[in-house]
Design brief:
Length: 108
């Protein structure tokens, strides 16, 4: 097996709503509304989503939001910067947990 995730499976996403179509539709309506033009333009929202997709490590989301970011006119530099912003927050949230280790060290 070449990989666990298959890009062609992204096209099957709608199938996850089968067992609970009402809840899936509610989520999908909310999701779609969140990504409409509002106080933030679509390009900014796509870059935020791309960054979060990397932090969540969702290959399907990364594929989808890379394409959406490109469609909205984001440059490779903008996409890379967005990914680095998300990654820096993830790293920071890991680093701050070192306080727990420091607390244990101080007690012992």
């Amino acid at each position: 097996m070449a990989g666990y995730y298959h890009s062609e499976d992204l096209a099957r996403f709608g199938e996850v709503g089968g067992p609970q179509p009402k809840l899936f539709k509610m989520w999908l309506d909310w999701y779609n509304e969140c990504h409409q033009e509002g106080a933030l333009d679509k390009k900014t929202k796509a870059l935020i989503a791309l960054s979060v997709a990397h932090v969540l490590q969702c290959p399907y989301c990364i594929d989808a939001w890379t394409s959406s970011s490109q469609k909205e006119g984001a440059t490779p530099e903008q996409m890379a910067e967005a990914v680095h912003v998300g990654a820096s927050l993830r790293a920071g949230s890991s680093l701050v947990h070192h306080i727990q280790s420091l607390n244990v060290q101080a007690r012992e």
